[in-house]
Write a structure and sequence with these properties.
Elements: H1 4-12, E1 19-22, H2 28-35, E2 42-46, H3 49-61, E3 68-72, E4 86-92, H4 94-106, E5 115-120, H5 124-133, E6 137-146, E7 149-157, H6 161-171, H7 186-193, H8 195-199, H9 203-223, H10 229-252
Parallel strand pairs: 1-2, 1-4, 2-3, 4-5
Antiparallel strand pairs: 5-7, 6-7
The structure holds S-adenosylmethionine (SAM).
S-adenosylmethionine binds at residues 22-25, 45-48, 51, 74-75, 90-92, 100.
Length: 253
């Protein structure tokens, strides 16, 4: 049975689209997409030999070698322009993910791609910021918990530039956040915490940010034992970050 995390990603994929799953590891997601008839065929991309072999084996075991092509290579380099409609990338850091997307974009590998389903493990703000920069509409987001881990899934579309600009301006309009002391940070807060997640905050959203607050608090406490000047500066930054998160959570409650 597919994990709740991968299931959620699968449900965002537009039925009938041509999909590439990049960093596919065991190719569980594309195998599921084909087996559930959501898509007819797919490409699984893998950089590393171990996961690449695992993806090949999984594909063969599922009897899907004619429908699922497993390709070895870095990021989107495994794709030909115009070959797929949807790209999924899941289970890696947001910084690596936005790097893969940017390289792919520069190489023209995203030409013709209309949909992205992205699940960064950390550093979601890098992904949102890349989407904004390269003219993708962040249409929806979700947050879920599984096995004591919390995941965010981002769903983005490519439309005509003017429409994306207009709709993203609405998505990233921070005026619904009434922050007494951090109002000017609205845009950065939306990129970090998720504009859609913030508008309809679920229990797990509060749980995630309470956990982040606790983590930052512990780091600051540990740093208090060091009297290096650099630590002072970092501590100040972390405290500031905590105060912004606290204020956002308060304003949502
Ligand atoms: N996508 C699967 C999931 O969400 O369950 C697997 C996630 S796994 C933690 C991350 C995978 O990305 C690894 O198999 C790794 O080899 C692969 N990977 C890392 N960097 C990559 C890159 N630049 N191009 C392609 N695959 C990459």
């Amino acid at each position: 049975k597919l994990s709740k995390r991968l299931q959620t990603i699968a449900e965002f994929v537009t039925p009938g689209s041509r999909v590439a799953d990049i960093g596919s590891d065991h190719a569980l997601l594309p195998v599921y997409l084909i087996q559930s008839s959501r898509v007819q065929s797919a490409i699984a991309g893998e950089l590393n030999p171990g996961p690449f072999e695992a993806a090949r084996k999984q594909t063969a075991d599922a009897g899907l070698t004619s429908k699922l092509q497993v390709r070895r290579g870095d990021g989107l380099s495994v794709l030909q322009p115009g070959e797929v409609d949807t790209v999924t990338i899941a289970g890696m850091g947001g910084s690596l993910m936005s790097g893969i997307l940017e390289e792919g974009y520069l190489a023209g590998k995203l030409d013709g791609v209309k949909e992205l389903v992205l699940q960064p493990n950390v550093g979601e703000e890098f992904v949102r910021s890349w989407l904004l920069k390269r003219g993708w509409l962040l249409a929806e987001e979700t947050i879920l918990e599984e096995d004591d881990k919390i995941y965010e899934v981002l769903h983005a579309f490519k439309y005509e530039e003017a429409e994306v600009l207009k709709r993203n301006a609405e998505v990233y309009d921070a005026s619904f956040l009434t922050l007494p002391t951090h109002q000017e940070k609205g845009a950065a807060i939306l990129e970090k915490m998720g504009p859609h997640l913030l508008r309809e905050p679920k229990e797990v959203f509060f749980k995630k940010w309470q956990f982040e607050l606790d983590k930052l608090g512990k780091i600051v406490a540990q740093m208090s034992q060091s009297d290096l000047e650099q630590a002072e500066l970092k501590k100040k930054q972390f405290r500031e970050e905590m105060s912004v998160i606290e204020e956002v959570l308060q304003c949502l409650q």
